[in-house]
Amino acid sequence: MIARFLLLASVASASLITPAAFAQDATPQPVDPAVETQNPRSDVIVVTARRRQETAQEVPLAISVVKGDSIEATGNFNIVKLQQLAPTLQVYTTNPRNTSVNIRGLGVPFGLTSDGFEQGVGIYVDDVYNSRVAAATFDFLDVNQVEVLRGPQGTLYGKNTTAGAINITTNQPTFDFEGRAELTVGNLNLKQAKAAISGPLSDTVAVRVAMASTSRRGTLYNVTSQRWINEQDNLGLRGQLLFKPSEDFSITLSGDYSKQDPECCGTTFVRVGKTQRPLNRQYDALAAAQNYVVPSRNPYDRLTDLDSNLNAGNKIGGVSAKIKWDVGPGTLTSVTAWRFWDWKPENDRDFTGLSIVSRSQNPSQQDQYSQEFRYNYESQDVDFVVGLFGFKQRIDTQGTEQQGDDAAQWSLAPSTDPANPANNPATLAGLTASNTQYLKADSAALFGQLSWKVTDALTIQPGLRLNYDKKSGFYQRVVTNAQGQAISCTTVAEPGTIKGTTQQCGVYQPQVSAPSDSAWNFTYDFNINYKIARDVLAYATYAKSFKTLGINQNGLPLNADNTVNYDASTVKPESVNHYEIGLKTQFFDRRATFNLTAFRTDIKNFQATVNGGQFGTVRGYLANAGKVRSQGIEADFKIVASDRFTAYANGAYTDAKYKKFVDAPCPPELSGGTFQAANATPDYSQPGVPGALSPRQCDISGADLPGVSKWAFSYGAEINQPVTLLAKEGQVYFGVDGNYRSHWNSNASPSIYTNVKGYALTNFRAGFRGEGFDVFGWVRNALDVDYIETLQVAPGNTGLIAGQPGDPQTWGGTIKFSF
After folding, report:
1. CB 3.0-4.6 Å disulfide test: which of 358, 598, 603, 702 passes with 628?
2. CA separation (Å) from 315 to 137, 318, 510?
């Protein structure tokens, strides 16, 4: 039977997209013969979301499943792009380190990334937890299937996650010789190649090797370096060795290595907003005073003039051993893994062509070790999963930030006093902060979930988790002047240092902190599901979950008297209450699927990133917002009208708000003025009034969470026709897919200047495919829509807003072969 392309089978508020005539699963999945007999057009999508193989429509939780060939066909070749197919997945990135992967608006604080907190959305590749979201920016490598699970997953997965999990399964070694290759070329000098080969070495040993390479010219032109920046330069390699001496025992050894080395990640001028600074200390006046003019004030001219080196060197890899052994009535699984991450960035932190911050870089190196034991038992009446998980991580970081020749005139108030030369470049030029830090994190968990089939229709499913986490860190900032002398900002200079000036200490202060904390957590969930009819499943879930404690690993903020706030060294755990109901249906003889989900998540002590706004003090650090709520409805529809036509549509409404955040940082329009007294009532009626009073904190209770669109949709359709072309039998096909996201805010404290307009993207493809081949052309962002991916408030509260425009129209062609 000719496989179908871009089929969507929804699973409780998510779409399952299964493609193409080219699809060949390396690991055949069991299919209920009765289903194929009743309707040869019905889709049977097998998932492992609950740590066992079962069809997607039987799983009583919200999940999206995207097959590997659909990822390739639609050009969504990493997690960042995958959000175009899964409406409730939000992924935003300013560079690989500062990447937010959220589900339903929850997961990680939006903004600058700190190593001191956990991810709310876990990323797993072949059961191995990837602790850093930098993995989200790499190409999918020989992927068979991606499952996006929504809601807390602490009773099924080793590392606790409060918002969901992304479970990636790669193609496994086979005892039948097979291979595939793919080549794509397109505009912007796009070149992408993928290949995989698999086969036996003996009757009991099989091997699989895969590679992927992507290169593409950048989308911003830097008039200073006369180079295109924000390019793509990815390489990935994976090897797997399977030893299977019998049907009930197997060992899979895996190793992978991926690297990126692009000139990235720069921004362009987007707009200027008024702050409460004096007019001569706001962006336009400061730029005029230095005769500075940006190359364009239209971000879609795609011009920038950044003068610092840019680099996003990124390496990720590791090895793992997975052992599966059928023991008694169940299966014992052991997953042992080591992974590393090596990050070598260079940034232009002032977002301008001026030398304000001349160097900004925080290279880091990570090692992580994990061990999971899991036992799965299945019977006619009872199934259960019980697991033990251990995790150990160390991250070392060496940071450097240096002030440039234009820093004094830009950052310091003007002065005519010869004894206080604030406008003298030498006042700040060469001032350097060197940071040394490390983080040690250990965690262990015992978890399990039981499924009791009370009747043929009714199943109850409780789960438990006992979790322990310990974090300890060290941070030291040493400040030196242009002559390399260490400076001190205490009343009396410390031994081996000289007394820093008021201006120097207002930008950088030496600091040492060693935050440490640990916590036990006991959580649970309960699911009840009822099969109303053969193809109608209803379910309800309650989960009591948590995100473990955090520590401020990148330095501590200052108090009002300019002393270090050591009380901010640790961040309380999040306490999560999650409620969900869902309905999963199939009709028209299982050719159509409609799924509906409603959810609500309440979080106490939500871990948020706050931003002080200055150049030299700690830019972003963690703090607890009192309460956060996310609620919404998700609906999905798919129809397989015939072998000639398929279509799908997914929609999500997400209402994610700060319910209580009374001491949040203020948005830029309320910052920069003289601070009000601590007990003063802030006046929000006239934001952006030069010289006005500014509150030290703002109450943003009721504001939307950053990065979340209230409305999100995706859709797709394909029509095909059998033909014989060049003596080859196959199908000519035409496909369309697209997505829409409503407006959202790109600042932790919503600002009138960081509102990102909604946008809709449309993609087309057309080609000819047959047995073992597929040739097609494609156009992405076919209507050449101008849209912004992220906006950033420039440090210093000057009113400058910079950003990264989304990809323009791209087009190209792809050739695939398999055997």
Report:
1. 603
2. 11, 10, 31
pLDDT beyond 50 at 9:
no
**Tens digit of each residue's pLDDT (9 = 90 or more) over 16-66:** 444 333 333 333 334 343 333 344 444 556 766 666 777 778 888 888 888
610 vs 556: CA distance, rounded Å: 12
**Hunting for tokens 């929000």 — which residue is that?**
684
Distances (CA, A) of 49 to 133, 167, 192, 309: 20, 7, 30, 43
- Supply the pLDDT for residue 787: 97
CB 294 within 8 A of CB 353: yes
The answer to whether the beta carbons of residues 476 and 438 sit under 8 Å apart is no
Tokens, residue 502: 């008021």
Overall average pLDDT of the 99-116 stretch: 83
136 DSSP β-pair partners: none
Handedness of CA 480, 484, 490, 491 (dihedral sign): negative
CA distance 635 to 581: 12
Write the single-letter amino acid at 29: Q
Integer-rounded Cα radius of gyration of the chain: 27
| Mean local confidence (pLDDT), 255-272 | 96
**Mean pLDDT within 615-627:** 71
Helices (H) and strands (E) in the chain, counts: 6, 49
Q: How far apart are CA 770 and CA 768, in angstroms?
A: 7
Domains defined for the chain, CATH in brackets: 46-818 (2.40.170.20)
Instruction: Answer yes or no: are the C-beta atoms of 308 and 356 closer than 8 Å.
Output: no
Measure the CA–CA gap between 743 and 420, rounded to whole angstroms: 46
Q: What is the mean pLDDT of the chain?
A: 87
Q: DSSP secondary structure string, 88-140?
A: TEEEEESSSSSEEEEETTBSS-SSS--TTS--SEEEEETTEEE-SGGGGGSPP
Strands 498-499 and 364-378: unpaired
Tokens describing residue 117: 């907190």
DSSP-derived secondary structure letter, 425: G
What pLDDT does residue 10 have? 33
Q: Are 546 and 494 in contact (CB under 8 A)?
A: no
The pLDDT value given to residue 326: 95
Residues in CB range of 638: below 8 A, 6 or more apart: 7, 8, 9, 10, 15, 16, 592, 593, 594, 646, 647, 648
Q: pLDDT digits over 770-818, tens only?
A: 999 999 999 999 999 999 999 999 888 889 999 999 999 999 999 999 9
* Full-model pTM: 0.89
For residue 528, list its beta bridge partners: 460, 540
The pairing of strands 550-551 and 570-571 is antiparallel
Tokens representing residue 585 in the block: 């249906």
